[in-house]
Amino acid sequence: MKTPQYTTDDIVPLERRYHRARALSAFAIIALCVLFCWANLTEATGSWVRLAVQTLPLALFLPGIWRDHHRTYSWLCFVVLFYFTALVVAAMGPQSHWTDYLGVTLSVVLFCTAMMASRWCQHARLARDQNASITQH
Asked: What is the pLDDT of residues 68-82, one digit of tens each?
């Protein structure tokens, strides 16, 4: 694959896209955790164990997102696929609830934004590295 060549004019738009995707990813993770908390605390079938199993894996990605590690987003995409699968099965089941559909929506948003955040983070770093000598003078 050919490495793209960036100019100094490309840095700001790439970073802007990355920061938008980063913010949406963080929002989607937090929204999914809040949804799981709400569902487990208000439903009769909810439990503390299920709450921990649903929220802790997502919470483990927050420090990496906070520190701008692009690999965190890549791994997050893999983990979100498990959530997506479980939520789609629940949403298409006979006793589906609106929270299942909201969970599917949030998991799709999280997957897409995490995927794009990873890509734009890498490209923004490449653009900064390619133009480091130009911007320092």
From this structure: 888 999 999 999 999
Q: What is the rounded distance in angstroms from the CA atom of residue 111 to the CA atom of residue 58? A: 12
Q: What domain range includes position 29?
A: 8-132
For residue 44, tell me if it sits in a domain: yes
CA distance linking residue 105 with residue 135, whole number of Å = 41
Compute CA distances 61 → 37, 39, 66, whole Å: 17, 21, 9
pTM listed for this prediction? 0.89
Q: Is residue 3 part of a domain?
A: no
If one counts the domains in the chain, the total is: 1
* Averaged pLDDT, 30-40: 94
